[in-house]
Write a structure and sequence with these properties.
The complex is a heterodimer of chains A (254) and B (618).
Chain A lengths: L4 E9 L6 E9 L6 H10 L27 E4 L2 E4 L5 H7 L2 E5 L6 E3 L2 E2 L2 H9 L20 H11 L6 H5 L12 H11 L8 H8 L13 H5 L6 H22 L3
Helix pairs in contact in A: 4-6, 6-7, 6-9, 7-9
Chain B lengths: L6 E4 L3 H12 L4 E5 L15 E2 L3 H5 L4 H11 L6 H20 L14 E2 L9 E2 L5 H18 L3 E5 L1 E8 L5 E8 L5 E5 L2 E4 L20 H8 L4 E2 L4 E8 L6 E2 L3 H4 L3 E5 L16 E2 L1 H5 L9 H13 L10 E4 L5 H6 L1 H11 L8 E10 L2 E2 L5 E4 L10 E4 L14 E3 L17 H21 L10 H21 L5 H15 L6 H18 L13 H25 L17 H4 L1 E8 L4 E8 L15
Parallel strand pairs in B: 1-2, 1-10, 2-6, 10-21
Antiparallel strand pairs in B: 3-5, 4-5, 7-8, 8-9, 11-18, 11-22, 12-13, 12-17, 14-15, 14-16, 16-17, 19-20, 22-23
Helix pairs in contact in B: 1-5, 1-12, 3-4, 4-12, 6-16, 14-15, 14-16, 15-16
The chains are: A alpha+beta (254), B alpha+beta (618).
Bound molecules: flavin-adenine dinucleotide, iron/sulfur cluster (2 copies) and FE2/S2 (inorganic) cluster (FES).
């Protein structure tokens, strides 16, 4: 019995500093495969289509249900999560599936990239609610379901980086923060206690790599897998920045 | 940062992060280790919610005591009672704290926190944030951790893998050996206490609802180094998951909590579309057999029922699948479940708002795990408590959740406490955060008074363990044998799933034992496809596989020896609960010389609630 196979072209890179190259693999087809199970099959039997034994492909993943954000890759030219990208749908587009690492972040190896810049930005914008500690001090501030709706939408950001991969302003060697940081700024600034650090966040957002570098091309919102209201965030943070700079002007604060 | 005292936390899920925040808050610096960025830890997958008594439920007759009683009854009384008393009585405070940290809990019309119904209870006592509660809770704790990182109190070692605990000449834990999975640099780290918060072990079963890192390898290494295991045979199989190629994706109990119904066609082999099957030809077997709890019986019961109706041939189209149906619910209720409905739609292509979902049970949670101790203390009863003599855990006592190895703690899913023989839905998030917060203080108290400092230990102690771990790697890499680690893992998963999940019996388990011995032999003759010294994922997996085999044997051994049925552990050859002699903790230790598990039975103190029959059908 001959099993059906399909071709997968993977962009590989052995080390952070080395050059990239392509390899093609024939993978046995089974129904309902996703890109992760494809990579698992390659890892279990790392032989290229022309029969060469090679080192298994390395990638990053976690939850396998599109909630941890780890497995972002560029698949058939689009940045998306490998776990929720289905092989059947890709094969309808093209008989060869093409997988590359994200291009806006340094490669660790093969499809695994280093996204620590995203986590560092969360530190820069003081992405937390300044509580008084873990002591028992009663409930948090009451909020309406409408307020929860917006904050919940922001809180689903899984730091996947799709918005940054698609953003024309965000490059490997500049310091633009991008939509992810703007959305998280709005998230914390719209919480009753989180607001207490709003000015400090805006100081960062108005600094180098901040909101004024956003060209408003709106690529980010189109690719966000969690459908964050990124344009709302950009507009809202922009508005807060304007008000804050007027306030800064009148209070003489620099 | 000061060299003393220092604490290492291994694992940045809810338990690890809550511990980190609590310990750092006491001014003790923490080195936080995780295989992946902590914000991506498995806790992010939790969907349904977190339990706690609340004012609305209280005024309807619920109490912390009732929450405790449900937890013990659900766990078939294998749980220790004082930790459960303490956890359930802390629960409302934990929700308040998470609320203050900014978790976007769903709200009522008036702006209070909304509640939903969950398994094993007749009261609404589950707090939730859409259908991605774990994600929201994890992020809130991740944010607080980042705050301490910013203050210089937390050092983050992301992508570093825990390999082994360092034990000094007195057998006290003084640090760990860890390896950077990117550069493969291996190092010894000193610490005055180590907290293991490494989560569950579902990957031993091949496909489960857990994340790929949940191999249990970290727990297995502690077990190999001398930590005992408690009730490793207690593995929860969740009734409703979507079977998949690489993973079984969970359909949270919240779908049933919000009114979802489980059914199969009344006619065997009926292959009509579910929407074409009229109401009277649908068999709502859970509602029929458990009129009071209906679709919300505890998981082990729902799982066995689904499993057996499918075995009898009533599964969808005659196969191993039942329907989980939410199509009849109002749109606003479906909106509250959006996060999980999207998962179903994404992976199957069907929209569960309009078509019933096809589900089957899958391995989900490890109730058993690293054996831990605690200090009991008498408490003053609070309103709702049904006795005058009540017992909790002593606040801040260094012993709380310490393993049998001094200085080595276990928090969260990796320990064996709180849940007994079955975990109730939405109690895990609670136990993880509770461990971190409550027992975090135990850790900081322990290290503050310590005289024998890790900073003063000789370098040779650490070098010895480094050499041990380096030798392991050298052996794996140089072996160049015959067997493929991924193939062994696939077989391990198949064997364990077939013999050690929903229905167990001695014959099949002995067969699995034989297979396991074969796999262990093959493991000594492995062939790695990557022998390089940089980001070698093949090596990392193969090393973990060895530990999974050891842990699997402990699960299997205790499953064979527990010749009764209790909670999630169902033996077709011993279908009844047999309190004498099995109302005991199975304590398993590792015999290094013979590479074998050794089992002892330990009494369970019952200071408050007496044993009673577990029966949800009335
Ligand atoms: C799909 C799903 C849904 C769930 N829904 C709910 C729910 O609604 N309510 C509920 O109460 N419970 C739920 N649970 C259970 C709950 O999510 C888990 O029990 C809980 O999140 C475990 O948290 P943890 O902190 O113990 O470990 P985890 O979150 O699993 O974290 C483990 C940490 O340890 C690290 N680690 C592991 N091994 C190593 C190593 N060798 N070296 C270094 N680091 C290591 C990992 O990187 C990670 O940071 C659900 C579980 C699943 C699978
Ligand atoms: S609007 Fe355009 S420039 Fe601005 S963050 Fe989005 S993609 Fe980048
Ligand atoms: S905003 Fe969306 S695309 Fe950007 S990191 Fe968050 S989830 Fe990903
Ligand atoms: S593995 Fe978590 S998003 Fe894909």
């Amino acid at each position: 019995m001959s099993t059906k196979t399909f071709k997968v072209k993977v962009k590989r890179q052995d080390e952070a500093a080395s050059a990239s190259y392509w390899q093609t693999f024939d993978v046995d087809y089974t129904p309902n495969m996703n890109v992760i199970s494809t990579l698992q099959k390659i890892a279990a039997k790392p032989v290229t289509a022309d029969g060469k034994d090679v080192a298994p492909v390395v990638w990053d993943c976690g939850c396998l249900e599109e909630v941890c954000g780890a497995c972002t890759m560029v698949i058939n030219g689009r940045a998306c999560q490998a776990c929720s990208t289905l092989v059947d749908e890709l094969l309808e587009e093209n008989p060869v599936i093409q997988i590359e690492p994200m291009s806006k972040f340094p490669v660790v190896r093969d499809l695994w990239v280093d996204r620590s810049r995203m986590f560092n930005n969360l530190k820069r914008i003081k992405g937390w609610v300044p509580t008084d500690g873990t002591y028992d001090l009663g409930a948090g501030p009451q909020e309406t379901q409408e307020e929860q709706d917006l904050r919940y939408a922001y809180s689903r950001c899984m730091t996947c980086g799709c918005c940054l991969e698609a953003c024309p302003q965000f490059t490997k060697d500049n310091d633009f923060m991008g939509a992810q940081s703007f959305a998280q700024t709005d998230y914390f600034n719209s919480h009753a206690t989180g607001k207490l650090l709003a000015d400090e966040r805006l100081d960062v957002i108005m600094g180098p790599g901040g909101i004024s570098d956003c060209g408003n091309s709106q690529n980010c919102v189109q690719v966000c897998p969690k459908e964050l209201p990124l344009l709302t965030a950009i507009a809202s943070v922009g508005r807060q920045a304007t008000i804050y700079s007027i306030k800064r002007f009148f209070t003489g604060k620099k | 940062m000061s060299d003393h005292p220092r604490v290492i936390v291994v694992g940045g899920g809810l338990a690890g992060l809550a511990a980190t925040v609590r310990i750092a808050e006491q001014g003790v610096p923490v080195d936080l280790f995780s295989m992946i960025p902590v914000k991506r830890s498995h806790s992010v997958c939790a969907q349904g919610g977190i339990n706690a008594c609340n004012e609305v439920a209280r005024q309807q007759g619920y109490s912390e005591w009732q929450h405790m009683d449900e937890t013990l009854y659900g766990g078939d009384f294998l749980n220790h009672q004082p930790p459960v008393y303490e956890m359930t009585h802390w629960a409302p405070k934990i929700i308040d704290l998470l609320d203050r940290m900014g978790v976007p809990f769903n709200r009522t019309a008036e702006g209070f926190r909304d509640l939903r119904l969950f398994g094993g209870s007749l009261f609404k006592r589950t707090h939730f944030s859409g259908a991605s509660t774990g994600q929201q809770l994890l992020y809130a704790l991740d944010e607080q951790t980042r705050r301490y990182e910013d203050k210089g109190l937390v050092e983050n070692y992301e992508f570093w893998e825990f390999l082994w605990p360092v034990l000094d000449e007195n057998g006290v834990c003084k640090g760990i050996i860890a390896q950077d999975q990117r550069t493969m640099e291996m190092k010894a780290f000193r610490a005055d206490a180590v907290v293991m918060a490494t989560g569950g072990c579902g990957v031993i079963y091949g496909k489960s609802t857990m994340s790929v890192i949940c191999t249990g390898a970290a727990a297995a290494r502690c077990y190999e180094a001398g930590v005992k295991l408690g009730n490793p045979e207690m593995i929860q199989v969740h009734p409703t998951a979507i079977p998949g190629e690489d993973k079984c994706r969970l359909m949270s109990e919240s779908a049933r909590g919000e009114g979802g119904r489980v059914w199969v066609p009344r006619k065997k082999g009926d292959d009509r579309k579910p929407t074409d099957i009229p109401e009277e030809e649908r068999w709502y077997f859970l509602e029929e057999r458990y009129p009071k709890y209906g679709n919300l019986v505890p998981r082990d019961i729902a799982t066995r029922e689904i499993f057996s109706v499918c075995e009898e041939g009533y599964g969808v189209g005659g196969g191993r699948m039942a329907y989980l149906d939410i199509t009849h619910l109002p749109m606003e209720t479906k909106d509250k479940l959006a996060a999980i409905l999207e998962i179903y739609e994404k992976f199957t292509g069907d929209d569960p708002r309009f078509v019933p979902m096809k589900i089957f049970p899958a391995v989900h949670y490890s109730m058993g795990g690293l054996y831990t101790e605690y200090e009991m203390e008498e408490r003053k009863p609070v309103p709702g408590d049904k006795l005058d003599d009540v017992w909790g855990m002593k606040d801040g006592d260094p012993k709380n959740m310490m393993t049998n190895i001094e200085g080595l703690y276990a928090f969260g899913e990796v320990n064996y406490q709180y849940h007994g023989a079955t975990r109730l839905g939405a109690n895990a998030l609670l136990s993880c955060i509770f461990d971190g917060l409550f027992c975090g203080s135990s850790v900081s108290n322990y290290v503050k008074d310590i005289e024998d400092k890790a900073a003063d230990k000789p370098e040779a102690l650490y070098q010895k363990y480094l050499d041990q771990e380096k030798a392991k790697i050298d052996k794996l890499i140089s072996q160049n044998g015959k067997f493929n680690p991924y193939e062994i893992h696939a077989r391990l998963g198949d064997e364990m799933t077939a013999s050690c999940t929903v229905v167990k019996n001695e014959e099949r388990m002995l067969q699995c034992y034989e297979a396991l011995n074969e796999m262990k032999a093959q493991y000594k003759d492995l062939k790695l496809s990557d022998t390089g010294e940089y980001t070698n994922a093949n090596l990392v997996f193969s090393r973990a596989l060895g530990d999974m085999l050891v842990y699997a044997e402990a699960i299997l051994h205790a499953s064979i020896e527990r010749k009764e049925s209790r909670g999630s552990h169902f033996r077709s050859d011993f279908p009844d609960r047999i309190d004498d002699p099995f109302h005991k903790t199975a304590v398993v230790s590792y015999d290094v010389e013979n590479d074998k598990p050794v089992l002892d039975w330990e009494e369970i103190p019952m200071p408050m609630v007496e044993l009673r029959k577990r029966d949800y059908s009335k």
